[in-house]
Design goal:
By secondary structure, this protein is an alpha+beta fold. Helices cover 30% and strands 23% of the residues. It is built from three helices and five strands. It has a five-stranded mixed beta sheet with strand order 1-2-5-3-4, covered by helices on one side. Helix 2 crosses helix 3. The longest helix is centred in the middle third of the chain and has 23 residues. The protein is globular.
Length: 158
């Protein structure tokens, strides 16, 4: 089951491309569906199989760069959702976003970084993209990624 409809058209209109699903770097699935919900695993800001930037936000990575990376994580999360839902037009709403920011010790701007993901989801999905959210500062993330994102969506029932 594979579809591309209005949501993917909006992604293209924004000048973006829905990427391929990022392959797992350990033993897990990129996304799973339970009932009408899809839960993504933590999505790193991978582009063509690589992290474009590594390090701590507020250190080697600027908040502005990290905000862009958070948007990339959100696109990767949408790809993971599509891999199990078949069509992004099935999204009824984004329920929850949890963002992790690998932070320098004195960096406290995690909400601004994760705004990159929230703004992308809003631009792509409109009101369906409005969600509850957590933005958490952490010491380190896998592969020294600056940002990681989990997304939970509710699907329209068949």
């Amino acid at each position: 089951m594979s579809g591309s409809g209005a949501v993917e058209a909006k992604i293209a209109e924004l000048g973006l491309t829905l990427p391929e699903v990022v392959p797992p770097i350990a033993t897990y699935q990129p996304a799973v569906q339970s009932g009408v919900y899809v839960y993504t695993s933590g999505q790193l800001p991978m582009v063509s199989g690589k992290l474009p930037i590594t390090g701590k936000v507020g250190g080697e990575v600027t908040p502005e760069e990290a905000k862009e990376l958070a948007a990339t994580c959100a696109l990767n999360a949408l790809a993971a959702v599509k891999s199990v839902a078949g069509d992004l037009d099935r999204i009824k709403r984004v329920v929850k976003v949890v963002g992790f920011v690998a932070s320098a010790p004195d960096f406290t701007g995690q909400p601004g970084v994760i705004n990159g993901a929230s703004e992308l989801l809003g631009a792509v999905l409109g009101e369906k993209g409005v969600h509850a959210r957590s933005a958490v500062g952490v010491t380190v993330l896998p592969l020294d990624a600056p940002v990681e994102l989990e997304v939970q969506v509710e699907l329209v029932q068949d």
